[in-house]
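Summary: Need help interpreting a holo structure output

Steps to reproduce:
1. Submit the protein chain below together with the SMILES for zinc ion.
2. Request a joint structure prediction with the ligand placed.
3. Inspect the structure token block that comes back.

Expected: a single structure record containing both the chain and the bound molecule.
Actual: see attached output.

Input attached:
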Amino acid sequence: MTDDKRVCVKCGRSDEQTPLITLSFKGGAKYICSQCLPALIHKTHLLVDQFPGIELPTNEDATSS
Ligand SMILES: [Zn+2]
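--- attached output ---
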């Protein structure tokens, strides 16, 4: 059994504290809360540590300040 605690991959809050959305990644389950979901969509590069090997969008705007 792997460590399968249900916590947001970004902020670490559990499903006791906030609703979590289940993600499927490389056959495993990950969880992210609704507040962090926009970061996963728009700032995917910030979550590469949580999703090793994730494919980043190539047509990214050069507006990273
Ligand atoms: Zn979160």
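--- end attachment ---

Reviewer comment: Residues 15 and 55 are 27 Å apart (CA to CA). The chain has a mean pLDDT of 88.
Status: needs-info
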